[in-house]
Protein: Peroxisomal membrane protein 11-4
Organism: Elaeis guineensis var. tenera
Amino acid sequence: MTDTVDKLVVFLAKRDGIDKLVKTFQYVSKLVHWHVEATHQDIAKRAKNWEVASGLSRKAFRTGRFLTGFNALRRNPGSTPLFRFLAVFANAGEMVYFFFDHFLWLSRIGVIDANLARRMSYISAFGEALGYVFFIIMDFLMIKKGLVEQRKLEAAENKEQVRKIRDDRVMRLMAVAANIADLVIALADIEPNPFCNHAVTLGISGLVSAWAGWYRNWPS
């Protein structure tokens, strides 16, 4: 129990840890609002307020995060020309997402023209979707590379290295799950449609993303 509490403290000390916790609040409240909207309007209103407050607080907490893309490219641009190409587009898309998300947040809280919200949301979501596509491709390529290396190591009976490759594969699959879920949410902003914009689709996608991120950031 003490070990779990210690890990929770470490998890919540991270920016991503807090983000995943609040993201869980955001999408649980979205599902609650959808579930009780027709039967318990008072509870539905409270759930909607919680969802909106959680979404806005996440945007405020992500201030300046677009700079992480620069740092990622500077520290790890990629080992091959292909990966450098993919990394540039993946991180560029993420940087556009976080940068324009600042303006979306400011427009929604009334600091700048509220009419800009829709335009900022579109640009931010487009960059987000672009980044996720390239991150997913990169993770699948690394998973494929890991499987090739694993077969060689299994033949040599190198159990320790095989375990590390398996652990890395689990983390990458979690990243793929989160990115696909977030891609669905981004598509709901880019091209609204009955499937992506349904409260259940958005709610489940948000929770998949939050919990996959929770798993990846949980202290080992």
Summary: Helices lie at 2-12, 15-36, 41-61, 67-75, 81-108, 117-155, 159-190, 199-217. The CA atoms of residues 185 and 213 lie 15 Å apart. DSSP finds eight helices and no strands in the chain.
